[in-house]
Design brief:
This protein is an alpha+beta fold. The chain has one domain: Trna Endonuclease, Chain: A, domain 1. The chain contains three helices and six strands. Strand 5 and strand 6 form a beta hairpin. The mean pLDDT is 87.
Length: 139
């Protein structure tokens, strides 16, 4: 059985491909020390990419289900670590082949979840909103 650090690293490697399919850009694991730092678990390779506004938290944990303690804890961690001006993306492995994505929907006032295949339009809308906020204009 893999230790939690190795399992997390494996999940982050797999999550890169998921974010690449969603965004069309290359992603890499970020450098973190004991979870500290103002960047997510994975970040765009291009430091000038608008996708740097996405704070991506990756979880590769058995038993994490929508709404359960592990899920709520992961969301709390992602929000706590999220830099100002960015938006949270929680990416977790549901099955060996299925990844899920959660992000805050301000219109609904709730976390919205998608399969990775369904997430692209929602995350693109979040990105446009974050860019508008950053640039001081309404989205």
């Amino acid at each position: 059985m893999a230790n939690s650090r190795t399992k997390g690293q494996q999940g982050e490697h797999l999550a890169r491909a998921v974010m690449e399919s969603i965004t069309g850009e290359k992603w890499r694991r970020s450098v973190q020390y004991n979870g500290a730092g103002a960047v997510g678990d994975i970040i765009p390779v291009d430091p000038e990419s608008d996708w740097t506004l996405a704070h991506v938290e990756v979880k590769n944990v058995a038993g994490m289900e929508l709404g359960n303690h592990l899920w709520r804890s992961a969301l709390a961690q992602a929000e706590r670590d999220r830099p100002a001006g960015s938006f949270t993306v929680l990416l977790w492995r549901v099955t060996p082949r299925l990844w899920a994505v959660a992000t805050w929907d301000s219109q609904l006032g709730a976390w919205t979840t998608y399969t990775a295949d369904e997430a692209a339009p929602a995350l693109r809308r979040k990105l446009e909103w974050a860019k508008a906020e950053r640039d001081g204009r309404a989205a």
